[in-house]
Amino acid sequence: MDESLNPAARRERSRAATGRVTRIVRAVGWISLIAGVLVLGFVFQQLFVTSWLAERNQTALEEDARVYFEDVEVVEVPVSEVQGLSTDEGGEDAAVVPDDMRRLLVEARPEAHQPFAIIRAPGIEALEEGWTVVEGVERSDLKNGAGHMPHTPIPGQPGNSVISGHRTTYGAPFGDLDRLEPGDRIEVETALGIHGYEVRETIIVDPFALWVTEPRRGAWLTLTTCHPKFSSRERMVLFAELVDGPNAEVILAS
Amino acid sequence: MNRWFAALPGPTPVKVLVAVVVAVMAVVALFFLYDWIGTNLLDSGGTFE
Question: Which residue of A has its CA nearest to B27?
Fold first, then answer.
């Protein structure tokens, strides 16, 4: 403190210093307030706005899917013509029922972004009422609900059908995927009817583990979502096997 | 805030209109930013890269 200043000058200097501190505190307060509002806005938008949008779109998508069920072309194909399913090469069942006698119901592939299936898991809150599945896993597809990976078979067909969905945002169709345990049932409704799957295994992989989408013998449903919740660091992958439905008997016998 | 509002062009009704349009555009831009952050960091939808 400069002792040479008179009391009035000292008071003036003190007042100026106090004014600076007040301005800094006020600025910090405003910045904190704005940052808080922005963060709260982010949480509100991610958890509530995205879910509201997805659930609103679901109503229209389910109606579109029901119309699609009526319109889509369904054909019967002899098992002998289905790649990877024929037992003519010497499988035990071939002698009991020849492949050309057993027929698989096949529906036409949906076009991109077309709602074509409804997935449900009884007893699991997020999937209890069902989510409409659209063809494609682009960001715009997944904002509406669950999306089917285009190069994989349609649910209810032989091979490995892959469906992806959000874990925490956009209605979180696969928010409770971790609650499904081996033996639990998952249903996928398509134009052919309801295909019942039983959960076999759930694993955690990195986001590059494309091998989980590779073809498998039999008929499998693979569900993929982000892991852990509120992060896209890893993927949770659930494998379920077809146990009943319009094609189950034919596929399981092959 | 008052200074920004006063700096807007035109009479008061026009100023109010411009302020509302700017505010709406800011909220929409903010939601797009939120969406981008959310999709890239929070929940990408579970697909593979």
Answer: A41
- Cα nearest neighbour of B34 on chain A: A42
What phi, psi does A236 have (nearest 5°)? -95, 130
pLDDT tens-place string over residues A126-184:
899 999 999 999 999 999 889 999 999 999 999 999 999 999 999 999 999 999 999 99
Nearest-Cα distance to chain A for B33, in Å, is 9
B8, part of any domain? yes
Q: Which of A124, A249, A130, A252 is nearest to A192 (CA)?
A: A249
Domain-located, residue B28: yes
Q: Which residues of B touch A231 (CB under 8 A)?
A: 41-43
Q: Which residues contact A41 (CB under 8 A, 6 or more apart)?
A: B30, B34
Structure tokens at A82: 């289905």
Query: What number of other Cβ atoms are within 10 A of residue A115's Cβ?
Result: 26
User: What domain count does chain A have?
Assistant: 1
Q: Is A82 exposed, middle or buried (0-12, 13-18, 19+ CB in 10 A)?
A: buried
For position A120, which CATH number holds? Answer: 2.40.260.10
- Is A188 part of any domain? yes
- Whether the complex's predicted ipTM surpasses the cut of 0.85: no
| Domain coverage including residue A240 | 7-252
Please tell me if residue B49 touches chain A, with a CB cutoff of 8 Å. Answer: yes
Domain coverage including residue B16: 2-32
